[in-house]
Design a protein that fits this description.
Length: about 220
């Protein structure tokens, strides 16, 4: 693994994405794993590989700016940052997702929209009705904050007070996560930081965000 990373560092420019492979049903690899023909690596080994990658990339001058993404010389993915920062975006094409306020249609609330997945079916719908939107849901204030929390904490900058305030003008980050509760405990354990910049994971916390989110979401939902 380390040798492979060394090779990658010699070939890449100033951005590296390292996503753990997800087994998708219907693929040959998934079938092999499910029937035991291919092994899956132990979780401890995967964790060691991740920490090795973090250390090597930071030593090579990369900033670990998102759980699975590293950049140097300011070469952050501005496209993906729009998702992690809960900005508005329109999904175009088969299977695409969007999050935006449809002001052109007279809307005033943020919506989640999903396009039809299958390309042929999507094209037929576009030709018939002018769009391929399969599903549209108006997001509640709580659902919006849950997305802000889950996506924003994936980044090293976390969730700024200003960004949180855009979605929650009457309930600040301190009011939700600065009081006694799960978030306070996570801060005391060294996983989380809440200060003048906002709410974010520590270096150690970023590696285990999935295990922190359930407690944080529970605390948010109580408000």
């Amino acid at each position: 693994w380390a040798q492979g990373l060394e090779v990658a560092l010699g070939l890449c420019d100033d951005h590296i994405s390292l996503y753990q492979l997800t087994l998708e049903r219907g693929t040959a690899l998934a079938a092999q794993v499910f029937r035991g023909a291919q092994p899956t690596p132990p979780q401890d080994l995967l964790a060691d590989m991740y920490q090795t990658a973090r250390a090597m990339l930071v030593a090579a001058g990369f900033r670990h700016y998102e759980i699975s993404n590293f950049a140097r010389k300011g070469a952050l993915s501005t496209h993906n940052l729009s998702y992690w920062r809960a900005e508005q975006y329109i999904g175009v094409g088969p299977g695409a997702h969007g999050r935006f306020v449809p002001r052109g249609e007279g809307g005033c609330s943020r919506e989640a929209r999903v396009q039809t997945l299958e390309p042929d079916a999507w094209m037929r719908e576009v030709q018939k009705q002018g769009h391929g939107t399969r599903r549209r849901v108006v997001l509640s204030p709580l659902e919006q904050l849950e997305e802000v929390l889950a996506l924003g904490l994936r980044t090293d900058e976390g969730i700024t007070h200003e960004r949180w305030g855009n979605f929650s003008p009457h309930l600040s980050l301190e009011a939700v996560f600065g009081v006694p509760g799960e978030a306070r405990a996570l801060q005391q354990q060294g996983w989380l930081l809440l200060d003048g910049s906002g709410l974010r994971c520590t270096w150690e916390g970023l590696a285990v965000l999935d295990s922190l989110l359930p407690d944080l979401l529970c605390q948010l939902q109580r408000h």
